[in-house]
Structures are given as C-alpha cells and as structure tokens.
Design brief:
The protein is an alpha/beta fold and about 150 residues long. Helix content is about 45%, strand content about 25%. A hairpin with a 2-residue loop joins strand 3 (about 70-80) and strand 4.
C-alpha cells in the first residue's frame, strides 16, 4: 500500500483538480497494478504550492534563489507500518504554464511521479541514471495515459 498525504498551500490547485487528495489516491491505486509497486508499503507527502513558496524552499534547502517545478526531500523512517519516504513540493504556476501546450493533469502527474522516484532513490546526475529514471517514469505515465 502506498499512502499519500496532500497539503494544499495554494487554493488555485482546486481550480484544476477539484479534490487533489482523491485524485492522487486514485492514481496511486492504479500504480499498484504495476508489478514494481505491488508490494510497496510507503507513505509520502505532497505540498501543492505556488512559485513564491517553492522559490523559498529551493533557496532554503538547495541554496538556489529561483523558482522550480518540483522539489523532493527524501527521508526514511517507519510510521504506522509504512516506510515514510519523504516529501514533494510542486508549483502550481509552472504546471499551469506547461499545460497550455498539454494537459494540466498530465503535467501534474509527470511532476509528482518524478518527485516520487527521487524519494525512492533515483536521480539523473548522469546520462545512465537519467535514462533509468526516465524509463520508470514513462512506464507509469504510459500506464496512466497509454502514451506511446
């Protein structure tokens, strides 16, 4: 079982996703049909925020004084028989802007999935690591959206 805690810091999110918690719960339940996710007992949190807050977080934790799309904060400890794997923060404005050429839900899913893979230990510091992480992300997105 994978559990997600949603913290809504920016009400604008609800203009695009009426009930973010229910939306993510539905997506995560779909993940459990993919063999890679079946036996996971994990919990994580997603902060749905805006550019101003994510810029502050990016500076505080990464010393980068700029806006970014997603931040991941891996953390490992046990909570209620689940492994708490960390926190993700996502900026509403960046997702909204990207969705002008795409779809808001797709862009949002790309970001939280990307953040999730960072929480479980994937990164993209080298081309080899990027390809490995990207392959996993695309597996999930293809499952959700049947993208080729």
């Amino acid at each position: 079982m994978i559990k997600v805690n949603v913290i809504l810091d920016c009400p604008k999110w609800k203009t695009k996703i009426k009930n973010p918690e229910a939306y993510l719960k539905k997506k995560i339940n779909k993940l459990l049909n993919i063999s890679f996710f079946k036996k996971k007992k994990q919990e994580f949190s997603i902060l749905l925020t805006n550019n101003k807050k994510i810029k502050k977080l990016n500076f505080k934790f990464r010393k980068k004084n700029k806006v970014t799309d997603v931040l991941s904060f891996p953390l490992k400890y046990f909570s209620n028989n689940n492994l708490y794997i960390g926190d993700i923060a996502i900026s509403y404005e960046i997702i909204k802007n990207r969705s002008k050429k795409s779809n808001f839900n797709l862009e949002f899913d790309k970001m939280w999935i990307h953040g999730y893979f960072h929480l479980i230990g994937y990164d993209h510091k080298s081309l080899k690591d990027f390809k490995k992480m990207n392959k996993k992300e695309n597996l999930v997105l293809n499952y959700f959206y049947k993208i080729n």
